[in-house]
């Protein structure tokens, strides 16, 4: 089947899936751009609504806009579940939970009117911004960053452990050197100073006053410049590796909505659904052939069973007919009228009988 004929036979569910989860059509790109705009505007409205003066003047407008966006995002969330073959898998995924949390507080406010705690929960709607980052995956660069972070995870973790060890050692050392009047009243306080100094932030709220303490402080500042370049270089190297081995596609799974499959992948690595929407799943043809073969075997067995039943019924009928014929052809000697009427026949010689 050609791609043109296949597109003509797409159902409404398939078209919704292509618009929401794909990005290779004008409709899908327009949907992504509109979604970004609505997410940004809705978050801006929530931020402006927290300003008391603006809420007093435009509170009603903010409320109408908020419920409008809530309704739109609710419809979008339901459509995402509708167009997937396995909607529960998407609902349990990270982005599915974020989508739900972005609309759930507003609907819960209807059940708990006037609750002040609900205002805190509604701040979770800012998590819609994560969906903007999610759209990076449609382009492919997001996968490069995620892969680079995953490949450099152990190196960055080792770097953080080294930094934590340094700030603890230097903080404890300065705590022993500096007097209490300098502000180093405890080791945690001194560790805080070490973190601020090593990261070259330098708030200035705590500073050593002894020459040895100042020397250690200067040494930590120089060390901080050299240390901060380590994770940047590690991450950059992993990004370059990911670019060289970029093999991800922008296809979304029609079963669970997962993205980030390899370009030569034919099935989803999470749910096993067929990824190519323009071709037929070969497994389905094999399954159909097996089902057809099993149906043919079943029909043959049924025909054989019918023949066996007919043979059994015919054999039983023939046996019954033979018994009745034998009974008719072999009457009892006592039923012969000639023998009953001649009482002396039994006393005659055999040749006269």
UniProtKB/TrEMBL annotation:
Residues 301-353 are annotated as: Disordered. It holds the Pfam family Ion_trans. Coiled coil: none annotated. One of its GO terms (biological process) is action potential. GO terms for cellular component: voltage-gated potassium channel complex. GO terms for molecular function: voltage-gated potassium channel activity. It is found in: Membrane. SUPFAM superfamilies: Voltage-gated potassium channels. Residues 29-237 form the Ion transport domain. Its main location: membrane. This is Voltage-gated potassium channel. It comes from Kushneria avicenniae.
């Amino acid at each position: 089947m050609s791609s043109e004929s296949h597109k003509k036979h797409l159902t409404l569910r398939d078209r919704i899936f292509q618009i929401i989860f794909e990005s290779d059509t004008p409709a899908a790109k327009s949907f992504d751009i509109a979604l970004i705009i609505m997410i940004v505007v809705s978050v801006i409205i929530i931020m402006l609504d927290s300003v008391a003066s603006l809420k007093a003047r435009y509170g009603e407008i903010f409320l109408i806009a908020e419920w409008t966006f809530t309704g739109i995002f609710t419809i979008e969330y339901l459509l995402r579940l509708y167009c997937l073959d396995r909607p529960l898998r998407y609902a349990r995924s990270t982005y599915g939970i974020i989508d739900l949390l972005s609309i759930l507080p507003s609907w819960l406010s209807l059940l708990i009117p006037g609750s002040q705690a609900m205002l805190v929960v509604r701040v979770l709607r800012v998590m819609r911004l994560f969906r903007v980052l999610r759209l990076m995956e449609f382009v492919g660069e997001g996968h490069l960053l995620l892969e680079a972070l995953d490949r450099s995870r152990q190196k960055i973790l080792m770097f953080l452990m080294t930094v934590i060890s340094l700030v603890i050692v230097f903080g404890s050392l300065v705590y022993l050197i500096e007097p209490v009047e300098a502000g180093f009243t405890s080791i945690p306080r001194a560790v805080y100073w070490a973190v601020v100094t090593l990261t070259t932030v330098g708030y200035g709220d705590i500073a050593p006053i002894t020459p040895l303490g100042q020397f250690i402080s200067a040494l930590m500042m120089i060390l901080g410049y050299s240390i901060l370049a380590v994770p940047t270089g590690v991450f950059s190297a992993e990004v370059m590796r990911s670019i060289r081995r970029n093999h991800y596609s922008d296809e979304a799974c029609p079963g669970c909505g997962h993205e980030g499959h390899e370009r030569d992948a034919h099935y989803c690595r999470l749910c096993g659904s067929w990824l190519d929407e323009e071709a037929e799943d070969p497994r389905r043809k094999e399954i159909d052939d097996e089902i057809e073969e099993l149906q043919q075997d079943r029909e043959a067995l049924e025909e054989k069973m019918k023949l066996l039943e007919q043979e059994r019924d015919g054999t039983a009928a023939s046996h019954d007919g033979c018994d009745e014929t034998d009974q008719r052809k072999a009457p009892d000697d006592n039923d012969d009228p000639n023998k009953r009427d001649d009482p002396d026949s039994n006393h005659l010689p055999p040749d006269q009988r």
